[in-house]
Amino acid sequence: MSELTATSISPVGPYFSPLVQGYWRLDDWQMTPQQRLSFLKAHIDLGITTVDHADIYGDYRCESLFGQALKLDPSVRQKIQVVSKCDIKLVSEAAPTRKINHYDTSYRHIIQSVDNSLSRLGVERLDVLLLHRPDALMDADEVAEAFTTLRHHGKVKHLGVSNFSPSQFDLLQSRLDESLVTNQVEINPLRFDVIHDGTLDQLQRLRIKPMAWSCLAGGELFNGDSAQATRVRETLQVIADELGATIDQVIYAWVMRLPSAPLPIIGSGNIERVKSAINARSLTLSREQWYRIWVASKGHNVP
Ligand SMILES: NC(=O)c1ccc[n+]([C@@H]2O[C@H](COP(=O)([O-])OP(=O)(O)OC[C@H]3O[C@@H](n4cnc5c(N)ncnc54)[C@H](OP(=O)(O)O)[C@@H]3O)[C@@H](O)[C@H]2O)c1
Hints:
About 45% of the residues lie in helices and about 15% in strands. The chain is α/β, with parallel strands linked by helices. A hairpin with a 6-residue loop joins strand 1 and strand 2. The relative contact order is 0.13. The structure holds NADP nicotinamide-adenine-dinucleotide phosphate. The site of NADP nicotinamide-adenine-dinucleotide phosphate has 23 residues, from loops. NADP nicotinamide-adenine-dinucleotide phosphate binds next to loops.
């Protein structure tokens, strides 16, 4: 019996699990294809059915590693929602003529990138395609045309964005017939600009749930030695003791306390850490506890 109930991430869907499993670090996990499949099945059994990818993860390798595992049991595809991203072009052995990292939201690149992702993942369709980073050269009409083509051919069901400002979001939305379904952004107690720059206000207004990346600041909240990380860690530990919880759970609860209802993306390949994240859903921080973490991060009281 699943502990988690799927939730619609926007007024037009799709339904995602309330926490998402991220696969950015899959290559680092050093798993065999069978171990990758077992990990995938284990988090599905816990109710985490949405998986987050990008073409570039693991220098363009992670989607293939995931696809190899899925091939061992193709029936698993029906149980998951697959998110992937495009538009970052990395200097890589996979692209020998490229000289610098840059962004590309042209029609041609979006179509090619999705075809590559589908082939590497071994799936027929992405449930959601995200534009990974805002592109200074983005022509919103061109993106809209690419999405229409991909949707028409059944290769992408929904479009979303990542790391977009509210005005970039509005610009793209103004040229689309379909609603954007999410903005995937960084939210953690060390970096939370989106709380104050209008990004989460816009999503709350539109009843669109953000997807939250690097909730644990990539591990920095456990091992960072900056004054800010140290202050936040000490405060998190005090609150964890008050609640009978662990630091990671307090962090996830801090993110999920936001009224735009973010979906945390878990970055760990350790199933015990995944379970711990799920159990954070039973914690509710008081307003004062939430702001103690804000104050520890900023290093000053609220104005
Ligand atoms: N859209 C974007 O621009 C963007 C950017 C970055 C990430 N993402 C997405 O967000 C997902 C999550 O990001 P993330 O991996 O940075 O998440 P994260 O949860 O902030 O960081 C995960 C890292 O923290 C470590 N960690 C977890 N618990 C720990 C503990 N108790 N003590 C010490 N270290 C601990 C993990 O190690 P273990 O593996 O050993 O547990 C892992 O290396 C990615 O997989 C990707 O899907 C999106």
